[in-house]
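Task: fold both queries, return tokens.
Query 1:
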Amino acid sequence: MSNPVFSNLPAPKPDAILALMGKFRADERSEKIDLGVGVYRDAEGATPVMRSVKAAQEKLVSQEASKTYVGPTGDQEFNALLADLALGNSVAKERVASMQTPGGSGALRVLFELVNEAKPGATVWVSDPTWANHIPMLNAAGLTSKTYPYFDAASGTVKFDEMLAALKACPAGDVVLLHACCHNPTGANLTLDQWKQVADVLIEGDLLPFFDMAYQGFGDGFEEDAAGMQLVASMVPECVIALSCSKNFAVYRDRVGAAVVVGASEEDAKLAMGQMGSIARRSYSMPPNHGAAVVKGVLRDAALKADWIEELESMRLNMLNLRTALANELRRLSNSDRFDFLAKHRGMFSRVGLTSAQVDWIREERAIYMVGDSRINIAGLPADRIEYVASAIIDSLANAD
């Protein structure tokens, strides 16, 4: 061709986390530690298949009779089970529309497109900071993004008064994206009382809450992690929720998630469900089903579900222990309370509060990999190398420009 089509493509913007993964793989130092990639790791550094998931998968393989399509909206029993898991009895079931998606990211994209169908070009307010994919995904769906204050890097706490003031100033009809629990990337959560105040502002300002829930069970407990979102859902007329099973079922590569709409009425929920099916049909057509079928197998079996909750709780407690150990060691080495907030955060992630130069120094001098904004994956901390990591963080404060 005289003018090849793809030669006109712009160079893609590098993905910081994917680039970090490449650097880590290429690093030949035996002492290297990966605190960047957001996957749960056990004491041996592995990301195992959960006991209940393995059992449900073995049962599925032995009994599955067909691999035919499940339809654009997926398996309806899976949809109901996952929605119940997140919402409990906070809203009437007939107001809920739930659709199986390719992971939590698929749910986000479907719901962003749904919002754009209902209100083209709507403004979505996202926390500063937020998960790296939120803004690119909502912009790609045709929506406009703006930010509200959330995290104070100096204290490691939520700027709640500033957050609330910003939400009160949002124009009526705008959308507010909220992390249901275990805020990614900061790990700083809202209290139940703060969620109540947020709900009041959303109602008064006629704002649509959009929840991203990817870590239920990783924070304060399985029920506790959903309490804030359920409180808001019970108060507001409508909301949307993107659910992911990647972390709490450890089915990362199977891409299991759901897009949930709580409508103001049963009729609105049905309209949303129909539109979500159309969105799926024109994009990926049908969701992958193996992982969702396994998750359904866990949730519909009382014994497997109990075992899943038990193992999930052990994962949660392990992360809390790692948080406490790191915070204590940093307190000892720094002789200050500068890093005490790490023990108060919840979930897989926290921002340590380092500069990009300090993050680079730690990677180059100590072979410890973390995202450039100093987000670390707590679950990636080797329990027997807490002192090494803490020492590297303290040393970076003095040695990095």
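Query 1 returned. Query 2:
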Amino acid sequence: MPIFRYKGYRQDGKESSGSITADTLRAARERLKNDGILPTGIEEETAQTSRSGFSSLRRRVGLPELALVTRRLATLLGASMPLFEAVTTLMEQERPGEMRSVLSRVKERLAEGKGLAAALAEERPLFSESYISMVAAGEASGALDTILERLADFLEEQEAIRSKVTTALAYPLLMAVVGGGVMLFLLAFVIPKITTVFADNKAALPLITIALLKVSNILRQGWWLLLLAAAAVLFAYRRLMKIDRFQLRRDSLLLQAPLFGALLQKLLLARFAKILGLLLSSGVPVIRAMEITAEAVVNRAYRIFLGEAKIELIEGGKLSTTLARSPLFPPLLIHLIGIGEQSGTLDAMLNKAGSAFEREFDTATTRFMALLEPIMVLAMGLAVGFVVVAVLLPIFELNQLVK
């Protein structure tokens, strides 16, 4: 999502500046207006101006490090240490690096009289909207240490899910890379040497061998065309992904993909329920919580519908009734939300639903990987077997002619 730098004035007349993430310039203006800021200038960060922003922070400050700093801050505040002193202690404990620099800037803003949420908001590429909103709610309610503990738990859960996905994909990706490398080596170097055996043979070659030789010739002689074609496809894809309706189409197709679509939906539902429940339990108003949750859910099919659901909530509708209109949300989640609305425990029910979908995601991932691994081995064996048969079959025919 693009990052916009802005300058403007707050409702009390004080100057304000910083960065904000939004899909478009218009969306950035709307968000600033909702935050009570009158912008006098907004410009999108270029790759050069954002070098020390989003890309650098996300590269140098990982989720585990952010979760650890959050938990340490919660522990210090829980021990009745003043906020400024707690942040100073964290900064002094950090090794030189990006996180230490971030904490140093936050400490300076606190010394100027800003609250913690306002200080973190100027480091928005690192601290998400949900993080900042929960910190603001914690400051308003006087339970900042408790809110930070919940945030640390949530960040650790997200890192655990990310680690599971990465670990699950490591073996198939390794198999794909090794298998692809073996096939390219055979087609580009081994097959051309073997073809000299058939050069003087006047007999017709088997169809499978002819197909293999054609593929080998294309790789050896037209490899640069294949690279150009791949680059053109990648360039066209990136251009198309800047158009909203293509992004929506892509995200909708991902949800409909066999096996993978069901896994993705469970992951999105778990993230939706966890974030919304966490925001509500932290005291964030439901409308603002829906806005933040919609931004946190990366799939545009969900994001668009949640935007429509927020409007219905503003008009007085119920969340369970609104979500029931979409096939994106299963009956289990809608039923739990309905119970939470009736009993006044919506945040607890959302957390329970999020945990249930996380468990389903873990189970489905385990089953998917148990099925994918033998399929990858079988596919690699078939590919190598195809090459072996295509090479040996004409050799056997030559032996028959010699006899």
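Both queries returned. Flag for query 2: The first helix runs from residue 25 to 34.
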